[in-house]
Amino acid sequence: MERNTRQRSAIRDAIAQADRPLLPQEVLDAAQREVPGLGIATVYRNLKLLVEEGALQAVNLPGENTRFELMGHQHHHHFQCRQCQRVFDVHACPGDLSRLAPKGFTVEDHDLTLYGRCSDCVPARPGRAHAASAEQDRSAMRAHKQKHR
Amino acid sequence: MERNTRQRSAIRDAIAQADRPLLPQEVLDAAQREVPGLGIATVYRNLKLLVEEGALQAVNLPGENTRFELMGHQHHHHFQCRQCQRVFDVHACPGDLSRLAPKGFTVEDHDLTLYGRCSDCVPARPGRAHAASAEQDRSAMRAHKQKHR
DNA sequence: GTAGCTGCAAATTCTTTGCAGTTGT
DNA sequence: ACAACTGCAAAGAATTTGCAGCTAC
What we know:
Two copies of one chain form a homodimer.
Chain A lengths: L5 H12 L6 H9 L7 H13 L3 E4 L7 E4 L6 E5 L5 E4 L15 E12 L14 H14 L4
Parallel strand pairs in A: 3-5
Antiparallel strand pairs in A: 1-2, 3-4
Helix pairs in contact in A: 1-2, 1-3, 2-3
Chain A binds a DNA duplex through α3.
């Protein structure tokens, strides 16, 4: 039977209150505000558990680590901002794409990722970057991007 | 100045002779037939080098490790078979998708991945899987999938 | 001759797992 | 009580890097 621990609630809340898919490290940062001693292993264990029980959904973008969001919206896609690296939901879909596949191939599903600038990072001025949430997230991403350098 | 080593040629050839994007480990396996002592670090170093010089193209699919293919076809997409896990090029594109983005967002590009069955793994009979190349690749993928278990 | 390259081993990053102690029910 | 859970540290997998020796040019 599954228990209701402070840690699990904090993790679920962190994701529920975010308006976009979060990285495990971002979940940890957010959840630690409520449970300071929280460890990253517990975050990973709970993310896996919550996905299995259908509460969360894993979001995989090309070349990115897995993010997590609330299960809910069925089929949808994602948009990644090339400036702040954040990922947003896109509740639209191009529809049936089976016509694109090679002959003899059967298409069952598809993944689509759009790239560009989010509304906080307008393309006009590259040096802008003021919106609080965007700036906050950029630092998280900077830390994240240090991998393999 | 860049040199022309046996190792680099073997790596480039391995990718040139494949009909689909290869994982670094698959490149190593193929290139070692020509240069037995070849190490994985050399493969990674050359893949990065060849991408930078424009000879190769990195192929990132959601939740998959980076694969590599010859640069050539500009904008194209990919198809992954859910049975044999192999990835194939799709030389078609749904076209402009900016209409799908939220208001205030600017779309500059997109990535599309189709999922289903390739012509070697017909959906009719799940227990089939005979084609030699498919079987060969499946074992490579099995080894690959051992990660994090 | 020497700068670029290679193989090996060690380091890094992300994720998972073993274990001993803690806690929800 | 006791099984589920947690934090920590160690293990694993993919990728990168330091280094001493090799090799193309």
